[in-house]
Amino acid sequence: MDKRLTVSDITRAASGISEAEAALKELAALGPGAQIHWVVDANVASMFLSPRRHFAYSDVFARHYGKKSPTDFPLAALAAVLSGYIFSPRFGLAEGGSGPRILLRPHSDELHRMLKAIALKAQESAMRASEVLRVERDFAESVRTKLDDFVKNREQSRRNFFLGITRYIIDTLGVILPEGPLDQLLRARTLLQNGQLAYENDEDYRFLGDLFEQAAVITCVEQRKKDWLKKINDLVEEDSSAPRHNPPDHQIDDDDRSQRNEDDAEVLAKIEYLNNWGLADSGNRRCFVLITAHHLLHRAIRRRNSALEGREARMHVFYPRTFLGSPKLLPTRENEVGVPSGHRTSWIRFTEALVMFEKRKASTHVTDQLDEHLQRVDDTWRALLDTAIPFAPASLAREKSARDVFVRLITEDEPRGLLEQEIYLALSHLFVALAELELDFTYQYTGPRPRRKPPPLRLSYYPEAEECILMLIESVSEFDLSRERKLEVGRMLKAVEAEQERSDKLDAASPMKYPLLLCLATRFAATGDWHAARVLATHAAAITQVVAAPSCVTGREAAFLECYCRCLEAKSRSDLGKAHAALAAFYSALQKERDWWNNEENRAREDQCCGRLGFDPVAEFPLHDARGEAEAITLELTEWMFDCFMSSASIGEQKPTEASVGEFWSRKAQSIDNLKARSIGLITTVDEFATSNYFSRSKPPSIDALVKFLRVKIAVCAAQLLVLSFFNTPAETERLAQSPLLKAAMNGLAQEGVPLPRMLLLLLRCIWCRGDDQQGAWSDLQKEDPDDHRLMPYDRQRFEFFREIARSALNQ
After folding, report:
1. Which band of pLDDT confidence, cut at 50, 70 and 90, is reported for residue 508?
2. Contacts (Cβ under 8 Å, ≥6 apart) of 255
3. What residues pair up with 36 in beta bridges, in sequence order?
4. Is the Cβ–Cβ distance between 198 and 205 less than 8 Å?
5. Distance between CA atoms of 321 and 51, rounded to whole angstroms?
6. Contact, 512 vs 428, CB < 8 A?
7. Is the pTM here over 0.70, yes or no?
8. How confident is the model at residue 337 (pLDDT cuts 50, 70, 90)?
9. Is residue 755 within 8 Å of 780, Cβ to Cβ?
10. How would residue 696 be classed by pLDDT, with cut points 50, 70 and 90?
11. Edge to edge, what strands does the sheet with 317-318 contain?
12. For residue range 151-203, what is the model confidence (pLDDT) as tens digits?
């Protein structure tokens, strides 16, 4: 252990356990009609959030801990089990447990400040990890280099090397590792959503909030607060003038000790008021009991009880470690059938060893045997610790997880891909946790501001997810979301998760399910981080390989989003190969759905669900075909742009000559006509769908959004094809004006205000409008900033090329 147990350690533990058990019996003696309300200090919640940091709270010997000792992990495991029990339905004196633990103000304010600080650390950690992918692109290589240097030079011990490399990985990739700030936020979400922690204004305890808003009560509590603050300050002064043993429970997280003392005094005043006067006329016997790890409050309450013995109601206060002996501490089946658990048996042996030690210590004849009994106490305590280890959360093994990452970095062939997925999943978990906890979230994406909108997705079985995606898409125009909008996003993500829980369509074991992943991918895309969006879309597609319901989750929408993102994040023509592969996966998933729905037995089984949700999958297939075709046309156009403006001649910063550009597009004349014909076919398909009975009968917002997005997509392609045709054959301007593409392009582009559609609309007006409209469009086009269009590597060159075409049109 950290140090050998001493006689005073054991005496203090025995005395504390004896006093606590007597107090618990006193509470139990209040009878079955009494209502016991457990009030927790913020430090008890902090123990739940980070059991490893607060491992000393589970030590019955209340010793000081300096450097880490071999018992740190067992104590941390016990702290995790103990705090989990305190905030579980099993907690309480009665067989049926008790109501939620209560956090009174201002301790609830303290918890919120704590969560905000954790949230800030989590975001900083997330940014450091994401920088590995954006800046330090060879992180795995740097780790391997450090290993090579160690092997070659051996300037440090093996132990120091592994300590250093572990710290390097933790500092850099802490967001994906357990027991970090993200892990604490996820535990906070569990704590606040499992119904076992309540605030004084929550629905079940609204009577407390109403009580503490009454003027007379405020006055009484304020006076009592002054009395408690004096008691606390007197104890602080005594401690400073006469140093004494203060257990680790006395340590507090808040640097502003004076403010903390005031907060504690107010909570004690409220509990005192409630137990004595506040609920005297309610007709129920209610007792409010405090659980705190702050030793100073225990001493203050003991003094108060001693001074007011017989005149006012006794106040009860317990350390978290008081409940280590509870038969229901561990979530085991033995608790359900009434059989003593291994932990309970170990606790009994431990307390028996304490009693035996105290008896032997009191005897003057067995002093020489004291060491033997001291060792027995030590052994039974270690055995007790061991019972908690199997129940310890994985989050306690931070260093081990860092070492596992180290092994993967030096052994995996493609470690970067694994890091990308884990980091972006961690960012997604962070976003969900902060949104659900209603904490501020700012994803500091350092790339260009969003210049394209994410595509809407069709998740027929998940209308809440569709609604969330649509709202996130609209946030492109509000790049920095307002706090109100962030809270709305949080509420919608909760709804998406609840929708998934109600559904039997997905694997219940999956921690990040398909619809939620697509919502989060859209969130990244809305900020312009197409790479992060693509990683999550790819992961979402992978999930569909293990789900059991191919009728509704084939990975079609994940593949579509992946294709869209891969196209926008392409840095060269060769990068588009993976976009084509994603598009092929989209078509494959669509065919899989067609085959499934063509089976009459399958369709009969799902018809009721489809009717309830108001959609017909078969009727929507033409729309999905059109979406795929629009992406195929976009990809071909994108390949041409790379070929024209980013060819080998331009890689060395040489600008393609006017002659070479003209020659390129002249060679593409027939291909351009082919894409125009395909685009006209798309316009017809979309018009037919938009005027069909199905569209008018069943028109969820997502269908509307899909049609609008598709019209804009076609318009963007059609506009470029028309301009390129005009460039090749200016004399055919009037013939091109009669093409259905021009009307479709004009109408579609007018629906969007992002840079590319806006520029293309001005370009069409420069070529096919006349008079003031043409001059006005040219004037506006000249005001366009080329940098606003820089997303693809060729965007600036394309912009300048199209602007020159517009200039030539004015001179005709």
Report:
1. very low
2. none
3. 287
4. yes
5. 13
6. yes
7. no
8. very low
9. no
10. low
11. 197-199, 101-103, 35-40, 286-291, 317-318
12. 666 666 666 655 666 666 666 666 666 667 777 777 887 787 777 888 887 77
Residue type, 120: L
**Across all residues in the chain, what is the average pLDDT?**
77
Q: Which residues pair with 290 in a beta bridge?
A: 39, 317
Nearest to 59 by CA among 222, 281, 248, 246: 248
Q: What is the pLDDT of residue 253?
A: 46
| 38 phi, psi to nearest 5 deg | -95, 115
- What's the token pair of residue 251? 């340590």
Q: Which residue has the tokens 């004896």?
A: 18
Given this model, what pLDDT does residue 204 score? 75
Query: For the purposes of burial, counting CB atoms within 10 Å of the CB of 539, is it exposed (0-12), middle (13-18) or buried (19 or more)?
Result: buried
Q: Residue 557 corresponds to which amino acid?
A: E
Helix (H, G, I), strand (E, B) or coil at 287: strand
Longest dimension (CA), the chain: 119
CA dihedral 611, 616, 618, 624 (to 10 degrees): -140
Cis ω before 106 (30° cut-off from 0): yes
CB–CB of 89/78 below 8 Å?
Answer: no
Strand partners, 318: 291
pLDDT tens track for 603-623: 776 666 666 666 778 888 999
**Distance between CA atoms of 52 and 54, rounded to whole angstroms?**
5
At 203, list the tokens.
């629905």
Query: Under 8 Å CB-to-CB from 404, ≥6 apart: which residues?
Result: none
